[in-house]
Amino acid sequence: MKAKKKAIVLGAGGFIGSHLVKRLKQEGLYVKGIDIKHPEFSESAADEFIIGDLRDIHTVQNNIDEAVDEVYQLAGDVGGAGYIFTGLNDANVMHNSAQINLNVAKVATEKKIQRLFFSSSACIYPAENQTNPETPNCEENSAYPANPDSEYGWEKLMSERLYLSYKRNFGLNVKIARFHNIYGPESTWKGGKEKAPAAICRKVAEAGSGQPVEIWGDGLQTRSFLYIDDCLDATIRLMRSDYTGPYNIGSEEMISMLDFTKLVLAISSKTNAIKTIHGPVGVRGRCSHNRLIENDLEWSPAYTLETGVSKLYQWIHQQVNNS
């Protein structure tokens, strides 16, 4: 009997990582998850789940073995605009994530891991390419000259270069994707680290009759958002391809935050007013550019924004009611 393929998901206690574990299990793989915490909203589907700090080289060395077929590196210090753009968490974001990636690159090379996926971010793109909310430029080849708008983006860009250096010098078979605002059920929805889709869904779900829904900035800043199932499809397709990247994994369905809030209100059947307030907003415009991944991997998102946000809102509405 042929042995099961084995995968390791680093960051398996997080939003994307916990969903990825479920998907890989559905495909019949033996899955080990490693994280500093368990998934917040449901039991992990992993065959093994190791609680460990990936900033410690011994945690990485002791839990990644030569027999593994795929390693997905999703672990890092991350949050929404309220965490990333205030400047209060810059040192932790840089140090924690960089230390994890230094450890993973070294150990994956030493253990001769067959395939390694690294989740980078759209935050690596130059700030000056994202000043126009209607025409942001996030094409993969626009990353240089580099000028990310946050230390989070700088760390992701540095780690891209780290992994590509290990590929050039030691033959590490790495795959790199720049995620663009991944959202869906079982994502952080309160506490300061939640991202915009979950935060706005929560605000709408909590809003009483006549209570305005507050959003940061003037609401004209634009983004594109990708539903979690589409993210997993693209991630696994890239992992098992002959390509390296970096590739954008995102949606080209761009929307202003004002219109996004109106969409959530419509989904909720509420008619609350929207109030814009001062707050961290990041770049003025950001949208995935998908020509490269469409051409090389023949991938494009299956979910419309309305379909995906409806699923997210339904889940967050339930969380609000149960809290």
TrEMBL record:
Gene3D superfamilies: NAD(P)-binding Rossmann-like Domain (3.40.50.720), UDP-galactose 4-epimerase, domain 1 (3.90.25.10)
Keywords: NAD
SUPFAM superfamilies, sorted: NAD(P)-binding Rossmann-fold domains
Keyword field contains NAD: yes
Domain NAD-dependent epimerase/dehydratase: 8-250
One Pfam family this sequence matches: Epimerase
InterPro entries membership: Epimerase_deHydtase, NAD(P)-bd_dom_sf
Superkingdom of origin organism: Bacteria
Stored PANTHER family: EPIMERASE-RELATED
Name used for this protein in its record: NAD-dependent epimerase/dehydratase family protein
Record lineage: Bacteria, Pseudomonadati, Bacteroidota, Flavobacteriia, Flavobacteriales
